[in-house]
Amino acid sequence: MRILLVEDEHDLAHWLSRTLARQAGIVVEWADDGALADARLRQEEFDAVVLDLGLPGISGHGVLERMRARDDRTPVLVLTARDSLVERVAMLRNGADDFLPKPFMVDELEARLQALVRRSRGREKPRLSCGPLTLDLAAQRFHVGGGEPLALSPREHGVLRVLIQRSGEPVTKQQILDRVFPGDSEVNPEAIEVLIHRLRKKLVDLRVQIVTLRGLGYCLEEQPARDGDTGSS
């Protein structure tokens, strides 16, 4: 999961970014200004946004209003010290998906983020799937048809996770880089090609394939079974 944290308290933002990455493997991008957050949300894709209200540049209210005005449906969790009923109702009516007052427990924030992302994809169970391939979000393991876990390296796991989160939709190399290798300038697009090649070999005969869409990226999709054939990559 890749989220945008919009928070102007630097110590809190650094601590929260490290903790979410360590505990849940969540990639946290950070913006300490509402205008900067708005610009990034226009140019990049995130799985969720954690949004403070009292921001320089553009307020949290303004950031949320601009997102919804352009039909950006990225889930938004409002994180703020302003915990009045009027404030909560106003933010929910303006398009926020959840509300968590400060101070808070990181475990609760993580659980709420996972739930928001699942609901945004129409999934209430803690797993993602594409055909017989499933990702158990709690155990962080891929399985095929409920059998043994699929043996993957950490990098292969990260790439396949991005693809299954967007199964049926194209994902560019840059989107994979941003989610799996944030801030790692040593990983280049050619490395993604190598990882995709390895994953294709591991998905042979599993009725799941990674398709290259020229000019668009890669797409994970179920391969229909044919008579006398279990499917191939």
UniProtKB/TrEMBL annotation:
Q: Is Transcription regulation a UniProt keyword of this protein? A: yes
Q: Which domain of life is it from?
A: Bacteria
Q: Which GO terms describe its biological process?
A: regulation of DNA-templated transcription
Residues in domain OmpR/PhoB-type? 125-222
Residues where 4-aspartylphosphate is found: D52
Sorted keywords for this record are:
DNA-binding, Phosphoprotein, Transcription, Transcription regulation, Two-component regulatory system
Instruction: Tell me which residues form the DNA-binding region.
Output: 125-222
Where does the record place the Response regulatory domain? 2-117
Which Pfam families does the record associate with it? Response_reg, Trans_reg_C
Q: Does the keyword Phosphoprotein apply?
A: yes
A GO molecular-function term, please? transcription cis-regulatory region binding
Q: Name one GO cellular component term.
A: protein-DNA complex
Q: PANTHER family annotated for this entry?
A: REGULATOR OF RPOS, TRANSCRIPTIONAL REGULATORY PROTEIN TCTD
- What protein name applies here? Response regulator
Species whose genome carries this gene? Diaphorobacter aerolatus
